[in-house]
Amino acid sequence: MMNPARRKTDQPLVLPQLPNEVFLEIAYLLCTSDLRQLGRVNRRLQDFVADYLSRYRYNVGIHALPNELVLEIAQHLGHQKDCSHLARASQRFYPVVMRYIVRHDVVSSGSSLLNFAAKRNLVGMARRIIRLGGDVNTRIEFSTRLVGKQLTPLATAARHGHQRIVKMLLEFGASHFVDGKRLPLALAILSRHENVAMILSQELDSSEASFTSSTRQTLLQMACAAQLVSLVRYYLEHIPCSSHDCDVALLRIIQKDARKIGIIKRQLYEDVFQIVLMLLRHGANPD
């Protein structure tokens, strides 16, 4: 019979009990992401992995270069995508190279990255670009059916419904207008981003209530067509609207709803019903 004491000493070591020499062999075969996973096993492995990465991964070769040389490399790469790959090579490179990318974009490309950040709701990136001198009203080419072929960062953020970016751009002085038109507001309405449209409507007055474009609709009519109940209520209660404007808005929302279901024996959607009632209460002619 096997001695119990001997059986106990012959038990294999579990992973956290292995000597550092064995961990070095294991770490050599693992990629950086797998090493980070290994470091989550316990405190001892966390300390080992942190020391290993610092000694053998992060501070060797290109990762050990001073910031000045890293910037020289970034300047010679030329293409923005290549610079972006360099920035992601290590945590130390990222702030250094991204600052260079943003400054170069502001000086040479008209702050085009600001529209990129506005489209993807990258608030921190957008704020960094503006603080480094980015033009908050820069434009990019974009075909719309409303007006022109250019979008500002505010118009881009409004079109995609990013409230935080919209608020931040307004705080930094972004213009509500593109070529004299409230394009950001119109795009928010057409895209049915009601909360963004409400934000952009706060300083609206009666002289700006009409939006002359290829659609030939006022903002009230556009809000009705988009079935944005809260926005329609806000316009009717805070911005003077002519009876003709209400008549046209009523006609268009009924026509639009009728095309969806059919005029005979159709049932109005709840939001359409609410909008119709509001228009009638504000003097719209049902005839």
Automatic annotation (TrEMBL):
EC top class, as a word: transferase
CDD domains documented for this protein: F-box_SF (cd09917)
Enzyme Commission numbers on file: 2.3.1.225
InterPro entries, per the entry: Ankyrin_rpt, Ankyrin_rpt-contain_sf, F-box-like_dom_sf, F-box_dom
Repeat listed as a keyword: yes
Keyword Manganese: no
SUPFAM superfamilies for the chain: Ankyrin repeat, F-box domain
ANK repeat spans: 149-175
Residue span, F-box domain: 12-59
Highest taxon of the lineage: Eukaryota
Alphabetized UniProt keyword annotations: ANK repeat, Repeat
Protein name: protein S-acyltransferase
Organism field: Paraphaeosphaeria sporulosa
Phylogenetic placement of the source organism: Eukaryota, Fungi, Dikarya, Ascomycota, Pezizomycotina
